[in-house]
Amino acid sequence: MKLRSVRYLTVEGLKNIWVNRLMSIASIGVLVACMLMMGVAIILSLNVDKALGQLEEQNVVMAYFEDSLSEEEAREACDQLAAISNVASAEFIPKDEGLQRQMATMDEAQQQYFQWLEDDNPLPDAARVTLSDLSLFDTTVEQIQNSPGVASINESRDLAMTISSITNALTIAGIGVIALLLLIALVIVANTVRVTMYSRKLEISIMKAVGATNSFIRFPFVVEGVVLGILSAGITTGVVYLVYKAAMGIMQSALAIQPIPFSQFAWPLFGVFAGMGILTGLISSIFMISKYLRKEGSEFRAL
Q1: What is the pTM of this model?
Q2: What pLDDT was estimated at residue 295?
Q3: Can you tell me the distance from the alpha carbon of 232 to that of 237, in angstroms, rounded to the nearest whole number?
């Protein structure tokens, strides 16, 4: 197809959006509704992932080193723990610092009572180990337990397994919701394109009768679908921003939750919406117009 024809058909596609503005508004409304639900699912998933990530950071494994080790040897043992593949970090805690942290959790009377421990500290040197992937919790804990110099460990396996299960469930649910909404958008927009197409049945039939190729007839519909998808993406991003801005205030004041700033995912979210809108408009337009053109072609061949 020549460049001049592409420009002409693109302009025709843009004109058709205005000429059939009621159907265009209906298509945009459907896409915005589906994208809005998808956006809520994505944003909710991002914020839950952040909250779970904070829980994962708090769910650490405490490794206590053997009393016979000097502080230098205990630090070397801590470095060995940090080298384990699933260990995100291993913070060395000298026994004096460990005692100070324990004393800080006590009230004033308890601190005075246990003050004698400063001269005879019973605590061992320790390491505060943070894991990267809680799904590998058992394997990593076993490696920590078997590391040289480690006398004992303190871990919260139940909490780790709960966090891992919730994360996996949310991931699966998020993928399912997004796939379902994309399918709904495809079906509804395809039907909207179908109605638009039948309202221009005479125009298509005339173009077919004078020898226009299928690609020539199809191109303006494809332009319509793509442009409507991009417009829907822009509108949805604006609506999501307003809704999320209001929700951020509620979460911060009522729930004491620090949500992710909208600016951190605004462009990726628009990219998801634009991709969904373009894909939906493209597939719906190509599928429906191709199906109709095959039918029209058979009718002309019969004549």
Answers
A1: 0.60
A2: 66
A3: 9
